[in-house]
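User: I'm curious whether this sequence folds into something compact or stays loose and floppy. Could you predict its structure so I can see for myself?
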Amino acid sequence: MITELKKSEFHKCKNLLHAQGQLEAKAVVEGVNPGRIFVDNIDAPTSGVIWLGNNDGFFFIGNERNKKFNNELNHFVDTVITPEAKKVELSWFEGIGNHHKWDDTIKSVFANRRLGSWKQRVYTLEKNDYKSNFNLMIEEGYDIVEINEELFKNRNKSINNIDFLHSKIADSWSSASSFFRKGIGYCVTYKNKIVSICISSFVVDNVHCIAIETLEEHQGKKLAQKIALAYVEDCMRNNFIPYWDCMESNKPSIAVAERNGFRMKFHYLGYDFKLE
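Assistant: Here's the prediction. I'll summarize afterward.
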């Protein structure tokens, strides 16, 4: 039977994580970022699935050949995940293997569903590869601002859309205080509005996963590239390793990463199907 672990038991899954696997899965197991973990055996898990707290995917960890676990997955999705997903208005299951051997298992287990797939790229930037020779100047009227607690609290009401920042942090962090203890971030402001945000979405040790969002009406002005550079500069000063995870089809995101000197570390596949 697939059973949910308590947060205090997440450490039991550390040995199930692939050394070169995704940062998001590690961050949940380490207890840095919120999420839920379901395993085959509470006392000695050998296979499991991590549900990211930001509802941005389910990561399969451990032994991909665990027949008992695999045979229960469809029933588990239908009876446990689907009802819980409806509560948070999640209509798609996005499954990702923590290592490539899970790919065949996922395709086999969910063969009876209308399974789609996509490719992801993961980039990182090491300090030795970084060359600080970029121009941070942006279009007149826009300003790059560090995200701190004073900005977040917005006591003077100087930001009209502070909910944009609040929701972006809440996507991946259990609390704002947790974000400010572990993460860093920058935003672009324009006429008392935050129009672009770049923050640490998941963190493990000194590795920071980057999340960027720019309001649609302000896209096309290279704001994402500029704000990412400010974020990267901060990482370099603090000996952090920025980690960039994006869809292979997201050419603008790839362009921003590569222009800022990132190198592709690995790629992986994701699979999805509609939750009925």
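Summary: The first helix runs from residue 23 to 29. The chain has eight helices and twelve strands.
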